[in-house]
Amino acid sequence: MISFKNVNKWYGDLHVLKNIDLEVAEGEVVVVCGPSGSGKSTLIRCINRLEPIQEGELVVDSMAVHDKKINMTKVRADIGFVFQSFNLYPHMTALQNTIIAPVKVRKMNKDEAERLGREMLVRVGLEERIDHYPAQLSGGQQQRVAIARGLCMQPKIMLFDEPTSALDPEMINEVLDVMRGLAREGMTMMVVTHEMGFAREVASRVVFMDEGQIIEMAPPDDFFTNPQTDRGKFFLKSIL
Ligand code: ADP
Ligand code: MG
């Protein structure tokens, strides 16, 4: 579903992604971890070309994202993106927030979009909050609306960039539970997170990045119990 081949990216003079090779198969859950500034956000933002790459090949669901001529609208429609900050429209209810993209991008009619929006809000456990505004929702609930909004586009891939790091501790699990459910249902996911319990349970592989490079890539049990590099060992000590 996602293939990085020798991908390099710079911000000006700053070389932020260095020779990235990574293949993500359909249904895989890849957790990306590493110190702050190591390039994790940049790595996943390249997948829907929120950031362009300068070198290498990046193919997503058979579409060449590295090719400047390709129309990204179609690629992006198939990729759900959930950020640390939920970015909901404050003047719209949960349901209204979930149906904008299906109506605007997928040209779905409003009734159908609303039916889908309700279904997805129920799926993330918010059947009681469908007509609430973001200000009436907790952080965990807002993040679940953001996930429902992504799911309404019926994506093939879901990307998560530290989806729980802005949440109070007691709300982290309700969001991770929704993500666990998606993983069980076979969604292809890349998740930047330091929630190592989540990684151990659902990740098919863990990617450890440092200074723009993939330093380690292994099944979670191997990475957590037996990191191969000093940087990996040091990182794990710092977060556990
Ligand atoms: P992470 O998500 O692992 O913390 P990022 O991908 O956000 O790392 O950042 C990688 C490096 O790129 C950091 O040094 C960061 O300061 C730099 N960076 C991130 N975004 C930009 C940008 N838009 N312009 C210039 N430098 C950036
Ligand atoms: Mg980041």
The amount of helix comes to 25-40%
Oligomer: single chain
The averaged pLDDT comes out at 96
Low-pLDDT stretches: none
Q: Biggest β-sheet, characterized?
A: 6 strands, mixed
Q: Choose one word for the global shape.
A: globular
Distance between the termini: 31 Å
Tell me the strand percentage band: 25-35%
Class based on secondary structure composition and strand pairing: alpha/beta
Protein name: Polar amino acid ABC transporter ATP-binding protein
Family: Belongs to the ABC transporter superfamily.
Pfam families: ABC_tran (PF00005)
GO molecular function, one term: ATP hydrolysis activity
Write the layout of secondary structure elements.
Layout: E1 2-11, E2 14-24, E3 29-33, H1 40-47, E4 55-60, E5 63-64, H2 72-77, E6 79-82, H3 94-104, H4 110-123, H5 139-151, E7 157-161, H6 169-184, E8 188-192, H7 196-202, E9 205-210, E10 213-218, H8 220-225, H9 230-239
Parallel strand pairs: 3-8, 3-9, 6-7, 7-8
Antiparallel strand pairs: 1-2, 1-4, 4-5, 9-10
Helix pairs in contact: 3-4, 3-5, 4-5, 5-6
The structure holds adenosine-5'-diphosphate (ADP) and magnesium ion (MG).
Magnesium ion is lined by residues 40-41, 161.
